[in-house]
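Take a specimen:
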Amino acid sequence: MNAPNHPSVTGTATKRLDPDRNRAAVENYVLEQQVGHLLRRAHQRHVAIFQECIGAAALTPMQWAALFCLVRHGPTTQNKLGRLTAMDPATIQGVVQRLAARGLIIRSADPRDRRTRLLAATSAGEALVTTMLPVAREISDATLAPLDATERAIFLKLLTRMAFA
């Protein structure tokens, strides 16, 4: 859904609330209860946990996702890697450049089509993923720690539904 064209959103960005006329609306809107705000706060918490736990590997969550996908799926194009990791072209380009500069991935010509460049994890990249998999699981567990097992399952099911709607 394109939010700016959604009926409940159209035009509201340019209209300012009249504080006298709409005080009740302002008072009844609680930022800390809004889905976007809560998702951002939860994401910030997860990134802080990730950075604390990732340690000497010194990867960002997006770099981890890209490197993991290359190890899991094998050589792929940058375009497909961007789709696998839900990163836009500019973001995946920067992630790929940083991983390549660290020697964790390489670029090569596709043997089936020399015009196409493939990305692949190097042996160092594969070793890093193997080493960091237990840490990645710990990061997920720490992020979900406030929830009990049943809540975790429900939360992940609902979050997956939202992410892929």
Notes: Residues 86 and 92 are 9 Å apart (CA to CA). The mean pLDDT is 90.
